[in-house]
Structure formats: C-alpha cells, structure tokens
UniProtKB/TrEMBL annotation:
GO terms for molecular function: DNA binding; DNA-binding transcription factor activity. It comes from Williamsia limnetica. Keywords: DNA-binding, Transcription, Transcription regulation. SMART domains: FCD (SM00895), HTH_GNTR (SM00345). Residues 14-83 form the HTH gntR-type domain. Coiled coil: none annotated. This is GntR family transcriptional regulator.
Length: 248
C-alpha cells in the first residue's frame, strides 16, 4: 500500500498535504475527532501517512488557515482540533464584498429582503422550547436595558434562535453571517430608546410566531427590519455607505 492509499480515494492532481488535511478535516467535522482534542504528533502523522515532515506541516497549516486546527506551543502543545466560527465566514464574505465595492447598506438591503422569508419559515417550524428561549432573551434585555453587554448577548440569542427555528441550516448560516456583518459595523452603543423599541418590536415578532401565524410573523419582522434600516441610515450613514474593508 502506498502513502497515497492511506488517505482515501485518489484525487488527480491534489497535493498529498491537501489529501491529509481533508482526511483530518472530515474527522473533525463528523465528530471522529472532538473539539479540543489533540491530534497525533507530527512524528506520528509522518509514520501513519508515510510522508515527509514538511508535508504534514503543510497539511496542518492548511487546516489552521481554515480554523479547523490551532497550534499550541510549548510542552504538551501541538495541533488541537477546533471548529470555525461564523465570524470566519463573515470575514471571507468581506473579501468578496470589497472586490465588488459593496457596502454595509447593501447587506442591510439583502436582510430586508430575506428576514421576512426566514420569519415566515420560523413561524411554521418553531418549537415551544425555542419560543421559550426567545422569550427569556427578551425578558433579560428588559431587566437591565442599561447593561449594553447584556443587551447585545440576548439580542444575539434572539436572532440566532429565529434563524435556527426556520429549520434550514443553509439559510441559518447565511442569515447569521449577514447579521454579524451589520452588527460588527456598529461603532457605539445604541441609545436606550432604540434598545427598548427594538425589544418591543421583537416581542411583536415572537407573539406572532407563538400563534404560528406565518403571515403576521413575516409582517412584524419586516416592520422591525425596516425600522432598524432607517436607524442605521439616519445615524450611521457615513459608516454603512463606506465600501466593506477586508482584514486578516
């Protein structure tokens, strides 16, 4: 058996380092290697795959660049499995948005189009447990509206739960990434009145969702996002009109 045979099906023209990286990536993404678990040492990988140390290191660099591995230094260090966060996808999306000279206002327009569709799907698929999670998030935002970190944390819980409730993993990933792009463009805290108004409009969305009224949920979500868009364009016009800037 050759070294190439040990890393699965032959892929014409693919470097050995990429083949090894793909095998490890599959193990991490399917749970064969759990997050936080140390991978075999370089020496062990060299012996397992029958390749040079430089090939193993290149495979690990590929995995690290995709946020699937982190390399810890020092005694007891080495490659450790991780899973990429959606912030990584958002940063990649920024690269393509910058290429096309897109700005955050363009992202807001996409959300205006898609959020009511997501809300409608959520109303049709939401569980009682998800409704409870969203209600708890809104209640916590009301408890201490002056605590901005608390507001941000629970607003994120609410938004992500809506996307989760829609029942489509691909849609959830897209919507959460778009939401993060807009959120991360915010330079300052939102005024208190804006926070309180947002919570009440989100409550309208949740009440319609609790009634499993898809049309009303889409309508209230559209109203919430239109009001949010007006806020961004009134108070943050200079920021959201600037082309998106990608950075490492």
């Amino acid at each position: 058996m050759t070294a190439e045979d040990t890393v699965g099906p032959r892929i014409r023209g693919q470097k050995m380092s990429a083949k090894i990286a793909n095998v490890i990536a599959d193990q991490i993404l399917t749970g064969g290697i759990v997050v936080g678990q140390r991978l075999p040492t370089e020496k062990e990988m060299v012996a397992e795959h029958g390749v040079a140390r430089t090939t193993v290191r290149e495979a690990l660099r590929l995995l690290e660049s995709r946020d699937l591995v982190t390399i810890k230094s020092g005694i007891g260090g080495g490659p450790v499995a991780k899973r990429p966060e959606l912030e990584s996808l958002g940063n990649t999306m920024k690269l393509f948005l910058q290429i096309d000279s897109a700005n955050i206002s363009d992202v807001i327009d996409v959300r205006l189009m898609l959020e009511p569709i997501v809300a409608r799907a959520a109303a049709e698929n939401v569980t009682d447990e998800q409704i409870e999670v969203m209600q708890t998030a809104l209640d916590r935002m009301r408890e201490d509206p002056g605590d901005y970190a608390n507001f941000q944390e629970n607003n994120a819980v609410f938004q992500r739960c809506v996307y989760e409730a829609a029942g489509n993993p691909a849609l959830k990933i897209v919507m959460e990434t778009l939401w993060l792009l807009v959120r991360d463009a915010e330079p300052n805290e939102h005024p208190m009145a804006t926070r309180l108004a947002a919570v009440e409009m989100q409550q309208d969305v949740l009440d319609a969702m609790r009634a499993r009224d898809a049309a009303a949920t889409a309508k209230t979500m559209s109203a919430f996002n239109e009001e949010s868009a007006k806020y961004y364009r009134r108070r943050l016009a200079d920021i959201i009109s600037q082309p998106v800037h990608w950075q490492l």
